[in-house]
Amino acid sequence: MPIVFVSGVPFGGGERLAKELARKLGYAFLDREEVVARANESGIPVGKLEVALVKKPAVQERMVRLRDRYLAVATATICEKAAAGNLVYYGRAGHHLLPGVGHVLRVRVVPEPARRLETVMERLRLPREKAEKFIRDVDEDIRAWVRFVHDVDMEDLQKYDLVINLEKLSLENAAAALCSIAELPDFRPTPASQAAMQERLLRARARIRLALDERTADADLTVRSSEGVLTITYVPRQAQLAPLIPDVLGDLPGCREIRCTMASTNILWIQEAFRPDSGTYREVNELARRWGAAVELLQYRAGGEEGEAVPVEVAPAAALKAGTGGVEDDLPEAAAGGADRSFERTLEALVQEGRSGGGHTVAGGRDRLVGAISRSVPYSLVVVDNLFLDKSPAARTRMTRELAMFLTDHVKAPILSTADLSSKLHLGRGEVLKAFAAGALVVLLYCAIFLRQEGLLNVLGGEAHKAAPWVASVLVALLAPVVSVLYGNLLASAMKWLKMD
Amino acid sequence: MSERLSVLVLDDEPIVGRRLAPALAKVGCDVEVFEAPVPALKRIQEKEFQIVVTDIRMEDVDGIEVLEKVMALHPRTKVIMITGYATVEVAREALAKGAFDFIAKPFKPQELRDVIARAAESLGFKGIHETPVE
Prior knowledge:
Distance between the termini of chain A: 44 Å
Radius of gyration of chain A: 29 Å
Mean pLDDT of chain A: 85
Largest sheet of chain A: 6 strands, mixed
Oligomer: heterodimer
CATH architecture of chain B: 3-Layer(aba) Sandwich
């Protein structure tokens, strides 16, 4: 029998329908509240995610690690409960937790608006106007949650097998109709769908183990699995974790083998001053997201007092710790007093997004800088900018360019300034015009060729060719590179527009 | 001598009051800590606090009821909700009922100090510091 996922909005009747359905079918019932409680018990503060949606949508990106941990707990809880027997789950869009699992019936419940408004007014003791605003705000928050957590639009009805509108249909009749549908052979488990669910469960359990073990809790690890083989990818600065990972995951049920590999795509970002709200941060982060790369920060102060590279540690990811009552330790006085913590904040932002490759600071001459760059890390790109801040803008640009050229001789990776990075990532106005011009010329060329086919064929193999065979060779030699350059420009712009690298 | 901000902290976990009271005192707040809602509400009836910081999940009376009672008695008081079990529904309910802000646990004292500074500013209060002073 399938796992029935009922999705709805608060006070919309969806939960009561799901409970009635579970009762009629004799299935176990599970709801989002229970999943959140389990996450909280495990020390994963789901409330931070929820409040971020209400208060500061801009900080959602900083919550990626927390989101992934919550998703792992939710997936494991649902799979474990479903493995023990049949299940009805009520939540916001829980079916997205099990992509590829076939024995899932996805139901969306649309509430009856007037009844919902009355329920909110009565249960929350709110006047009509405030209740209406509450409903609008909560619905928007939940849509934002589904978008952030599952990266889908909750209103996209193609993501459901069935939509139940409670405007006319009673809960009892809706539950009775769902009972018949749940028993259709289309939703029955198959060996393949059972195996897909076991794979999801294995991956989720591995993520939870790694997140809750203090040795690996703050590591940036990627977990994949295939046919019981778990592959854990770590960033180069955390290479010391490789021997620990099999210990942490040791006796995981359903795991046949554990493989640990180092991430092969890494970006090194060298600057003197970092800020997590800067345009450069967004650019580098966007590229890292596209590549699935880790970003390593290197704060370089040219000409400062010479010293070895110093690693910078950041606070661990938010977690509910026993004995603190949820009030963490205060910031050090110097930090709270306004000392510049931009570098640490940038590093923290990357850690929360699960893209940190670590950070360290170094001062002194160019050799110190080169010495601070690890030879064992396979960098895919080095971004250099915002250096020599005590110099004039002209001197700063010249010295940064010279440093980039110096690094080219010592680092086996492309070196880019942030301006170059931006131009490589985004389509500028000039490039759009160039792409249009290239497209127009390609069209003109093809029109000319197809409208003058007879003459062209004559030159390539007809009477004219017999009279002057060299003309065909010259024509091809001239046209082929022109067409390839025009096509190249057009495709490069299209790929950039589609954000393909 | 600068004016001080009167703050009531209510949380049934004693550690919360113990950690928050000194953290708020050093930015210019006079803090009274309560671990049970009933005595806290009695004190609120006696005195109009400028800020009330309350947990949501508590035995007997929950934080939403405390908020409703504070709003009914002293509409100018700014109520800041703190909870380890935040959901968008509860946050929206609290805001609809007049809460000034909502903080999910775990949080750093500085996060609460920032919210209190904003609340003090909206009350036209000048004596609060955003960061600790020696």
